[in-house]
Amino acid sequence: MYKNLAGRAVLAWAAACFLSPAFSQPQAPKAPLKIGFVYVAPVTDAGWVRQHEEGRKAVDAALGAKVKTTFVENVAEGADAERVIRDLAQQGNQLIFTPSFGYMEPTLKVARDFPDVKFESITGYKQTPNVATANARYYEGRYLAGIAAGRMTKTNVAGYVAGFPIPEVLQGINAFTLGMRSVNPNAKVVVVWLNEWFDPPKERDAAMALFNQNADVVAFHTGSTAVMAAAQERGKMAIAYHSDMRKIAPDAQIVAVTHQWGGYYTQRAKAVLDGSWKSANLWGGVKEGMIRVGDFGTKVPKAVQQEVLTRQQDIAAGKLQPFRAVAADVRDNEGHVVIAKGAQLSDEQILKMNWLVDGVQGRVTR
Predict the structure, then answer these.
(1) What pLDDT digit, counting tens, does each position of 82-97 carry?
(2) Helix or strand or coil: residue 162?
(3) Which residues contact 270 (CB under 8 A, 6 or more apart)?
(4) What's this model's pTM, rounded to 2 decimal places?
């Protein structure tokens, strides 16, 4: 009798458990992490925004249903950026990437009102508990591209179409010039400032003007493919930036300096998912896989390709630093010593760069 009573009790307990809400209803799946991206220009086939869009896609591919990503393109820096970033936070995005220097202050402003949201200010330099910063050592790739340009030029004149005279752009111009003159001491670089990040007609016009000034190779720090298209049209050479641009300029491209954001974006999304995200600052380059030089054009001799790739390995190994003065003082284009022989610029000095190196024709205009 006691055995039967015990059995009935077990059955009653089991029935109660399975009929209770905790057992009768399946556990709701965990909601995906919502991640927002803000782009300063339209998403095109190549360029600055394209590389960040590839980074977003890499997050989707790596994390699948754990995340839900979205982006807003062609957002002007300033008030528009603040509005869009705020909208993304209000829509429940818990991680927001803002990859443009002019997004830094709007990001900080919105972050103060959303302390539980994580923000990644890409190319910014101000951190708070919920705002991290990250950037890439673009200048490492620029130095390597300069080596290729120095070997390929026939006129010893390179043009450079530049957006704004901020330290990041100055680093690139100077590293490109130092790389070029390391293999071709007679080379010079002519700079045209646009005070725009993305304006294809102005970018094209600037490239054409540089070709008219005897430049046979051109580099750029703007957001479109217009400079590459101009070089292709004029039968000149060009350095692709942000992305491989051989589809746009199959005959003109010498080499591409490409930005690789997928690994960093995926790592930061994983950190939010597992609760380990902390505000930090990363400045990664060739060694960290954030900058890569390659995608050589068909006209580049194998010896030049190998030279560039070897120097890339030297940078990754720490054997080569673009802003180290090895054989002599490095001077700016006004004659002042900016790196003494045997010295190397610190990261702090590089980040505050406000000069143009000897060999550059142009001025830092603000």
Answers:
(1) 999 999 999 999 999 9
(2) strand
(3) 63
(4) 0.83
Task: State whether 273 and 314 are in the same domain.
Answer: no
Q: Tens digits of per-residue pLDDT, 170-203?
A: 999 999 999 999 999 999 999 999 999 889 999 9
Categorize the per-residue pLDDT at 28 as very low, low, confident or very high, splitting at 50, 70 and 90.
low
The answer to whether residue 315 sits within a structural domain is yes
Q: Are 228 and 245 in contact (CB under 8 A)?
A: yes
User: Does residue 353 share a domain with residue 214?
Assistant: yes
pLDDT at residue 5, rounded to an integer = 42
In this structure, are strands 131-136 and 188-193 parallel, antiparallel, or unpaired?
unpaired
Final residue belonging to a domain, choices 234, 249, 284: 284
Residue 172: give the domain boundaries.
138-258+291-361
Residue owning tokens 């045997």: 342
Q: Cα separation of 323 and 364, whole Å?
A: 19
Q: Which amino acid is at 131?
A: V
Residue 220 maps to a domain: yes
Q: Report yes or no: 249 and 261 within 8 Å, Cβ to Cβ.
A: no
State the pairing for strand pair 337-339/330-331. Answer: antiparallel
Residue 221, pLDDT above cutoff 90: yes
Calpha distance 241→224 (Å, rounded):
9
CATH number at residue 273: 3.40.50.2300
- Do 250 and 269 reside in the same domain of the chain? no
Mean pLDDT, the chain, rounded, equals: 92
